[in-house]
Design a protein that fits this description.
With 235 residues, the chain is mostly beta strands. The protein is built from 2 helices and 12 strands.
Length: 235
């Protein structure tokens, strides 16, 4: 971890360049978030923070500056999967990630709506999300034609993890940003031990000649479960 001044010696979020074809943007969605809660606020505020304004500002600046063909955002939490924890005293679910159930942009979704709108308006091409937290693997495609919020370009999210923990899923999808499941594999048994073999990871390859990216989702044995080739958008 490279230091970022006296006040951010342990900062996690950073850009990792891999030459002209790839920039990876590592996010930190734990350190700057507001408290978990019902996540249904109708306007942004301190309680709706997830990345936080400093990190979100950094991400938009770095995406704008990037000249790499592919911009991969590595996020520790999924975008459109509903992740809930315990109920609060009023019996409402406490949401742990971004999604809060179907409907318009609310709560933590405000930051993502701002980010998606920015990417579209700045014509930042070839943005792909790699996310984790939920204990299975999936490929999701997001499209404004299916969404409650429409001001964004379509994009892909690939989910895998963790590699050594109990398995569960699948989680429900939130329609705010219009995701659909293109592929998923879960354990048939809730909280199956790693020895059951329902652990997953992903592999990303970029062709040096064509610039095409291929994302392959694999099980713990290394067997390929699903592969998606993405051709770069150069317009």
């Amino acid at each position: 971890m490279r230091p970022h001044g006296a006040d951010e010696t342990g900062r996690i979020y950073r850009r990792i360049p891999y030459g002209p074809l790839l920039d990876v943007f590592m996010l930190d969605e734990r350190s700057y978030r507001g408290p978990n809660g019902p996540n249904r606020q109708s306007r942004p505020g301190p309680d709706t923070a997830f990345m936080g304004q400093a990190q979100l500002g950094w991400l938009t600046r770095e995406l704008s500056r990037s000249r790499a063909t592919w911009k991969v955002i590595a996020s520790d939490m999924p975008i459109g999967l509903v992740v809930t924890g315990d109920l609060n005293a009023a019996g409402q679910p406490m949401y742990e990630a971004v999604a809060n159930g179907d409907g318009p942009v609310r709560g933590r979704e405000f930051e993502y709506a701002d980010l998606f709108r920015f990417i579209k308006r700045r014509r930042i091409r070839n943005v792909v999300w790699i996310t984790g937290d939920v204990h299975y693997t999936a490929a999701h495609h997001y499209d404004p034609s299916r969404a409650q919020f429409h001001d964004f370009d379509p994009f892909w999210e690939f989910v895998s993890g963790p590699i050594h923990a109990g398995s569960f899923g699948p989680n429900a999808l939130d329609d705010t940003f219009g995701p659909t499941v293109e592929f998923q594999k879960t354990s048939p048994v809730l909280n199956a031990a790693p020895s059951a073999g329902f652990q997953f990871f992903g592999q990303v390859d970029i062709d040096g000649l064509t610039g095409a990216m291929t994302v392959t989702l694999k099980d713990v044995s290394g067997a390929s479960l699903y592969a998606k080739r993405l051709d770069p958008w150069t317009a």
